[in-house]
Amino acid sequence: MKSSFAIMFPAVTLLVALVIPVSVGAQEQPVTPGRKKPHRYRFVDLGTFGGPAAYLYGSDRVSEVRILNEHGAVTGWATTSTLDPYQDFCWDGDCFLAHTFEWQDSVTTDLGALVDGANSDARWITNNGLISGDSENGELDPLNPGFPEIRAVVWKDGHIVDLGTLDGGYESVAHAVNSRGQVVGLSLNRTPDPNSMIGSFYGIGFQQTRPFIWQNGVMQDLGTLGTGNNAIALLINERGQVAGDSYTSTDPSPFCFYNNNVFPLTTGAFLWEKGKMTDLGGLGGTCTLASALNNQGQVAGWSNLAGDQAYHAFRWDPATHSHLRDLGTLGGTFSIAVAMNDTGDVVGAAARPGDQVVHATLWGRHGLIDLGTVGTDQCAEARSVNSSDQVVGISNPECGSDEASAFLWEHEGPMIDLNAFVPPDSDLHLRAGATINDRGEIAAFAATPDGNRRTVLLIPCDDEPADSEGCRGPALRTNVISSPAATLSTRARLSPRDVLRGVAAELDRYGWGRAVNRTSSR
Questions:
Q1: Helix or strand holding residue 2 (H, E)
Q2: Which of 110, 185, 392, 419 is placed for a possible disulfide with 14 were both Cys, Cβ 3.0 to 4.6 Å?
Q3: Where does residue 262 rank: exposed (0-12), middle (13-18), buried (19+ CB within 10 A)?
Q4: What is the SS3 assignment for 5?
């Protein structure tokens, strides 16, 4: 267990991740004439701190995450063998004490927490190694009896810093950080609010939710849109621009779905820069949500159409900020944008005609591309795209299915099930591709046969010799069991709410955020 010296001294190395070597019995897939030779990867199980599970953050909603940087460093959190001291409000569903980790060059470092015996997690890592996240501080929230206080934190060179709260509140959450050390997130104040934007979702309580930017030891309230009184800051780029969501008034919204939570009031997406918050507008409905921000100041997300019965992915460009660009669908009535690269290429998911199936989608330099699904799966969602338009995500036999597979898509070939790169002597199944960097490294969610969550890194090794130890091509695996997909004739038409609920269920099932676990364990 990490001692309280973690506050003042660099973290110590506690764990070495397991690199799985090539099995001589692996049956590699043949190369189809006319197609690019399949990639080869080194498979790395990032391990745990002695507990049953390890996690990568995927946000508490459908939005972009950066838990893998361009130098191959990965951050997440892993359980220890110690039970969570707050069994009524467990940090994760397994109820073991968890600490943030950083993995790089085959070494995993325990970054600890604010105090001994507290939980922590990580949500973002920069190219210069800054990590933002959350930690318990050992105190109980007086406004929410029995609930442990959570504080936004940032790690620099292994040192952890408590970012504090706004207006005397007791809870804060850090979502993202840039290489300048600017951190954004949310803080609860002490003002009661039955429509608290995030309090009920995190299981924290019903106080106003305020967006913040922290820099040089000072936390600043970014304000809200219109007459709204709740907002969250989700993303920050290298220019210091901030994107997030805000209530715009006290008028009700019939449908504003935020993972497993519903925002009850009209909500808009914003871009904040140099003290000014800009309303990005909408597509006619009462709900617009931001999900991605790049270093050009472009914002992507999705917005309800007039009548709030459908929603479309959008991209907002600062050069044409008078309106959102509706990115459209694949012939159905809804689509979502999840991530975006610095050239403005957007990935997410969109419904096909009839709204019976949902495919991973790329809106980019080559136009609108249907990325499809893995095999005969009916539903897929893209989660990350790099500068080469390599895309990773999740594919399901059916929307909301208990089964899922991580995928890789690129222009040279069809969607690839990343489980083809899992060594035969590993029992892990890759459930979702979390993020891919410009080096082609992939951080993925995995699970053991008994359902424990794990984290995996796939490192490209195409340029290494064919007999390089631990470097393997795609292999046909016989130990992965998939359920047959339902035929279209037996499938009901999906509603927009069904799709987002299905996505939310998948994210919770495969470790995309701990908030649902904390709430459900109460």
A1: none
A2: 110
A3: middle
A4: helix
Query: In the structure encoding, which two tokens stand for residue 188, read together?
Result: 């609860």
Distance CA 372, CA 405 (A): 13
* Number of Cβ atoms within 10 Å of the Cβ of 35: 10
Q: What's the rounded Cα separation, in Å, for the pair 205 and 150?
A: 12
Structure tokens belonging to residue 376: 């005969």
Q: Are strands 442-447 and 74-83 parallel, antiparallel or unpaired?
A: unpaired
Q: What does the DSSP assignment read for 49-99? A: BEEEEEE---TTTT---B-B-TTS-EEEEEEEEEEPS-GGG-SSTT-EEEE
Contact (Cβ atoms closer than 8 angstroms) between residue 64 and residue 46? no
The CB density around residue 502, as the number of other CB atoms within 10 Å, is 19
Sheet holding 159-162, edge to edge: 120-125, 131-140, 148-156, 159-162
Amino acid 414: pLDDT: 86
Residue-wise pLDDT for 221-232, tens only, equals 999 999 999 999
Nearest to 41 by CA among 371, 364, 456, 377: 456
**What is the Cα–Cα distance from 455 to 443, expressed in whole angstroms?**
7
Give the model's pLDDT for residue 476.
Answer: 54
Phi and psi at 503, nearest 5°, equal -60, -45
Residues of the chain where predicted confidence (pLDDT) is lower than 50: 1-34, 59-60, 477-491, 503-522
Question: In Å, what is the CA distance from 136 to each residue of 148, 152, 338, 398, 454?
Answer: 6, 9, 29, 37, 22
